[in-house]
Design brief:
This protein is an alpha/beta fold. The chain is built from nine helices and six strands. Helices cover 36% and strands 7% of the residues.
């Protein structure tokens, strides 16, 4: 949530409340808190000597802040948290969670969506609704050279600056089928990042057939731990199926 400097209230303990009142007046009913976690608890760069209260548990302070925000916006406003891979300490205040790597417009980027589902779907429809990424893209595959001709320069520059080994955008039809099927069966919430006027009928049909997703609960998706095989990673498949390999899933 970012506000123009000319409307920012004076910073202080009630700053989140004052800022949200401005947005409420404008009719906002959805807020995404990006990079949202307890900074004093999880970031080594925080100057803890400068904290207002050096004795309070950082997670308690974080939840007190979220409590103030939820009380301000009311129970019906959608509040989404993006805790950047940290623990889900905002459960009870956030309506939805997105917790994973930034996805981007390609198969490797969409695998980040699958990874986020596998990490967090055990609480989907129970403690929150899972949003697995900023938006899925089912557009046809496009090389980087094609993208330079058909997309704004900032689009390709962003990909080259931030994403590893980016060679193009979009998905094959088989990849698009796999992605929307997995999204639908696991029951998460998803938005769409495709350029809709350009989307072929066979691709838009995939979206129509899988929205809304199924109201799946975690027990629906836990058969024989099959979801672990889908996790995005460079680890060979035998590692996932090994009974002796130990791995921490964060």
């Amino acid at each position: 949530m970012r506000l123009p400097p000319w409307i920012l209230p004076t910073p202080g303990p009630r700053f989140p409340q004052e800022a949200i009142h401005h947005l409420d007046d404008w009719g906002f009913d959805y807020y995404k808190f990006d990079g949202e976690f307890s900074l004093p608890r999880y970031s080594p760069l925080v100057d803890r000597a400068s904290l207002f209260d050096k004795t309070i548990d950082p997670v308690v302070a974080y939840r007190n802040r979220l409590k103030l925000i939820r009380e301000t916006i009311g129970p019906k406003v959608m509040l989404e948290g993006s805790p950047e891979g940290t623990p889900l300490d905002g459960i009870g205040y956030f309506t939805t969670y997105w917790n994973g790597y930034d996805d981007y417009n390609g198969w490797q980027g969409m695998c980040h969506v699958v990874s986020s589902i596998n990490d967090n779907a055990f609480l989907n429809h129970i403690a929150f609704y899972l949003i697995a990424g900023e938006g899925i893209d089912v557009s046809p595959w496009m090389t980087m050279e094609e993208a330079k001709k058909n997309r704004p320069a900032t689009f390709t520059k962003y990909a080259k600056d931030r994403k590893d080994n980016e060679v193009g955008f979009g998905l094959t039809l088989a990849e698009a089928h796999t992605l929307v099927t997995y999204m639908a069966l696991t029951g998460g919430v998803y938005s769409v990042a495709s350029v809709m006027p350009e989307l072929p009928e066979e691709r838009s049909k995939l979206l129509k057939q899988t929205l809304p997703t199924l109201p799946s609960c975690p027990s629906t998706c836990s058969a024989a731990g099959a979801t672990c095989i889908m996790r995005s990673s460079n680890i060979p498949l035998p590692t996932f199926t090994s009974t002796t390999t130990r791995r921490s899933w964060t």
